TrEMBL record:
<dbReference type="Pfam" id="PF12040">
    <property type="entry name" value="DUF3526"/>
</dbReference>
<dbReference type="InterPro" id="IPR021913">
    <property type="entry name" value="DUF3526"/>
</dbReference>
<dbReference type="Pfam" id="PF12679">
    <property type="entry name" value="ABC2_membrane_2"/>
</dbReference>
<feature type="transmembrane region" description="Helical">
    <location>
        <begin position="132"/>
        <end position="156"/>
    </location>
</feature>
<feature type="transmembrane region" description="Helical">
    <location>
        <begin position="185"/>
        <end position="205"/>
    </location>
</feature>
<dbReference type="GO" id="GO:0005886">
    <property type="term" value="C:plasma membrane"/>
</dbReference>
<feature type="transmembrane region" description="Helical">
    <location>
        <begin position="25"/>
        <end position="46"/>
    </location>
</feature>
<feature type="transmembrane region" description="Helical">
    <location>
        <begin position="217"/>
        <end position="240"/>
    </location>
</feature>
<dbReference type="GO" id="GO:0140359">
    <property type="term" value="F:ABC-type transporter activity"/>
</dbReference>
<feature type="transmembrane region" description="Helical">
    <location>
        <begin position="246"/>
        <end position="266"/>
    </location>
</feature>
<keyword id="KW-0472">Membrane</keyword>
<keyword id="KW-0812">Transmembrane</keyword>
<keyword id="KW-1133">Transmembrane helix</keyword>
<protein>
    <recommendedName>
        <fullName>ABC transporter permease</fullName>
    </recommendedName>
</protein>
<feature type="transmembrane region" description="Helical">
    <location>
        <begin position="450"/>
        <end position="469"/>
    </location>
</feature>
Length: 475
């Protein structure tokens, strides 16, 4: 039986490819897909270069401004700086949540900012339709094309009468079905392989691309799993349908439901079930918490007086003028530390709500593999919620350490009769730049383990379903 099966697979694959090349509609769709690939690729490269140049110029400008400082360190802290979420080549492939959560963090004394300046805030079209990217084409259009092609794989044989001829030759229905699966899946691989090949060589010859090879491999395998899942779905629908028209309508409904409706409904449900505090209310909570105190602490003025009294006792001084340190710098850093603790206290509630929303989407993704693919693609591209939170935490830590260095520098120089202390540019020159430390591949895989399990589960489930459906006979 192995020889007839091998011959069948070879014949079916050749037949499917001949039909695809002869079918003007399929050829036109392939041309459209590659045209979209080309247009999206050019836009992606242009946008990536523009964003990267903008970040490099801004970082250089801010660094020069810091090195040119010759002022009170606390004034420099008020002047502050900006930190930018780093870009990589995969983040250009799938921008993910960057356009909606922002990419810029403001460093400033007395104020804890969030990551802000998202593109969606200034672009109504982006809010409504999303960004035209390579990932969007691969997640939406390619699966639609595969569903459309594979949904008529078996109905065409039944409508043309060739299916009965195959059965008369002793070929099992499951052999025909799997021949259709592998022929259509090979077509999918050949369709997307050029794009992934180009991306691989871009990473290969990029200075920072070697660090992304593992992520790229997971993305490649994730999309291949999803395409196999799409082909299996189409062939199963084809096996259960009487006509090609019926099968096409069913797979179109499945595509709309799984790729458009369920993600929208899931996101809306997560926001409704776990609502976030508004930014205005959050900022007010932080302000009031700092002024009135949290966890039974004294109000702002009492805390400052207590800290000053403790400082005088520490140095056995009767007045501020007798202190060997600058009391302003110490008190300001004390207030800064307290405000940081207030911010963390209230932000922990926000972060918990975010985690609840993400958990809900993860569980929905188990039922909807499209959501799992999207989450896996964003995670490997470094544009998911996990990377966003990691950037925010590291940026906040850098901000707190920088403000502390500036305040303590001021505190180490007592007030002199001739005027306020001005730090030498040499001090600002030695302040370190912000460096984002991305998570390891193992950490990301563990975070998105349910997305990987979802894709694998659905491939196995649909494979078993296809065998069960075609085991007795096809209708």
């Amino acid at each position: 039986m192995s020889k007839p099966l091998h011959a069948l697979l070879s014949t079916l694959i050749r037949k499917e490819f001949r039909l695809v090349f002869r079918d003007k509609i399929m050829s036109a769709l392939a041309i459209i897909i590659y045209t979209l690939f080309l247009a999206s690729g050019l836009l992606t490269v242009f946008q990536y270069q523009q964003d990267q140049q903008s970040r490099e110029l801004s970082n250089k400008k801010f660094r020069q401004q810091w090195e040119a400082q010759h002022s009170d360190p606390h004034e420099a802290a008020h002047y502050g700086t900006y930190l930018f979420k780093p870009l990589n080549l995969l983040s250009a492939f799938d921008p993910g949540l960057n356009d909606y959560f922002g990419t810029t963090y403001r460093v400033e004394a007395h104020i804890q900012h969030e990551v802000d300046y998202s593109n969606a805030e200034r672009n109504d079209a982006l809010m409504r339709f999303g960004q035209f990217t390579l990932a969007l084409i691969m997640q939406l259009l390619i699966p639609l094309l595969l569903l459309f092609i594979s949904s008529s794989a078996l109905t065409f044989e039944k409508e043309s009468g060739t299916f009965k001829m195959l059965m008369a030759q002793g070929i099992k229905p499951s052999g025909v079905a799997w021949g259709k699966v592998w022929s259509n899946y090979l077509l999918a691989i050949l369709l997307v392989l050029p794009m992934f090949t180009v991306l691989f060589f871009i990473l290969l010859f990029s200075a920072s691309g070697t660090a992304l090879w593992g992520r790229f491999l997971v993305i490649f395998l994730g999309y291949l799993l999803f395409y196999l899942l799409a082909v299996l779905t189409g062939v199963i629908i084809s096996a259960l349908s009487v006509t090609s028209r019926t099968a096409t309508l069913i797979v179109l409904a499945i595509w709309l439901f799984s790729s458009i409706l369920v993600p929208k409904i899931a996101a809306g449900t997560a926001a409704d079930y776990y609502p976030l505090t508004s930014r205005v209310a959050f900022n007010n909570d932080v302000k009031q918490g700092f002024l009135k105190g949290i966890n039974g602490d004294a109000p702002y003025h009492e805390r400052a007086e207590q800290r000053l009294a403790a400082l005088l006792r520490q140095y056995h001084a009767d007045s501020i003028a007798q202190l060997p340190v600058n009391a302003d710098g110490i008190i300001m850093q004390y207030n800064e530390d307290y405000q940081n603790s207030v911010f963390d206290h209230y932000y922990a509630q926000i972060e918990h709500t975010f985690q609840q929303q993400q958990s809900l989407l993860t569980y929905v993704g188990i039922a909807d593999p499209f959501i799992s693919l999207k989450r896996l693609s964003m995670a490997m591209s470094g544009t998911d919620f996990y990377h966003h939170q990691l950037f925010f935490q590291q940026a906040k830590k850098y901000r707190n350490n920088l403000i502390r260095q500036l305040n303590l520098q001021l505190a180490s120089h007592p007030v002199k009769p001739e005027g306020t202390y001005k730090a030498d540019p040499e001090f600002f020159l030695h302040l370190k730049d912000f460096e984002f430390r991305p998570p390891s591949l193992a950490e990301i895989l563990w975070t998105e383990r349910f997305a990987l399990l979802s894709l694998c589960f659905w491939v196995l489930f649909l494979s078993a379903s296809l065998n069960f459906i075609t085991k007795p006979s096809l209708r």
